[in-house]
Design goal:
The chain starts with a helix and ends with a helix. The longest helix is centred in the middle third of the chain and has 25 residues, at 101-125. The protein has 240 residues and is mainly alpha-helical. It has twelve helices and two strands; from the N terminus they run H-H-H-H-E-E-H-H-H-H-H-H-H-H.
């Protein structure tokens, strides 16, 4: 996640901070698609930083598809279709840039495409250990609440274990993106007011379905969980 990278060292913190600032400007549209950055020497001087720090920040953005560099053409912002929008860092930076309604809707549509089927698979393949770990995560989530970091971590843990229970490596590979989407939408919903309702009941319904090894009930429970989370997000936007 972005936070752990930023805290890793002073040098890394500067580079990621620059990358983050540029990314927020790109994601917000302040630096539009096709924008060409000044030459490396001029831009580093303008910003008061070393060329190596600037070069590394742009390299990070290039790895995430936000910019591309070509000989004689310089570095420019790429079309949005090339951006790695599910990269955990980009998800975090998108929320810092204030996500659009379409972006939020797209995230929840993706969750509806992936997570209900993953829940059904988890119900078929889960072990007793998976159920125990999900139960422990849900208890921690209920004890701390989603307004706390501990509660949000427990929520992510709950969903992570569910994905692991699918025993499908391709599904599990999506976990970091799904966890980031869950984390940042949860924080976003609470930025100006408390959550509009208690999300524990639908999580418990999902756990019960998986524990009962009932794929269709798990699919339905996860669909309802994501649907209600989307509704909560829309309420938070309306009330903002």
């Amino acid at each position: 996640m972005a936070g752990s990278l930023i805290r890793s060292s002073r040098g890394r913190r500067l580079k990621m901070s620059l990358a983050q600032q540029f990314a927020v400007q790109i994601l917000s549209g302040e630096l539009p698609e096709g924008h060409v950055f000044p030459s490396e020497i001029d831009y580093a001087h303008q910003l008061g930083i070393s060329r190596s720090a600037l070069r590394e920040a742009l390299r990070i953005l290039a790895a995430k598809g936000l910019v591309e560099s070509r000989p004689k053409a310089g570095t420019r912002v790429t079309p949005r279709r090339q951006w790695s929008l599910l990269d955990p860092d980009l998800l975090a930076w998108q929320f810092e840039a204030e996500p659009s309604l379409k972006f939020l809707s797209d995230l929840f549509e993706l969750r509806l495409l992936v997570e209900p089927s993953a829940a059904a698979l988890a119900a078929e393949r889960r072990t007793a250990a998976h159920v125990t770990q999900m139960r422990e995560a849900l208890a921690a989530m209920a004890a701390h609440g989603l307004s706390t970091e501990a509660g949000r971590h427990a929520d992510q843990r709950f969903h992570m274990i569910m994905l692991e229970a699918t025993q499908n490596d391709a599904v599990i590979a999506l976990a970091s993106s799904i966890m980031a989407a869950i984390a940042w939408t949860t924080i976003y919903k609470q930025r100006k007011r408390a959550l509009p309702r208690d999300p524990i009941p639908e999580h418990r319904a999902l756990l019960d379905a998986i524990a009962a090894a009932d794929p269709e009930a798990a699919r339905a429970a996860m669909t309802e969980l994501v649907r209600l989370a989307h509704a909560d997000t829309e309420i938070s936007i309306t009330d903002a």
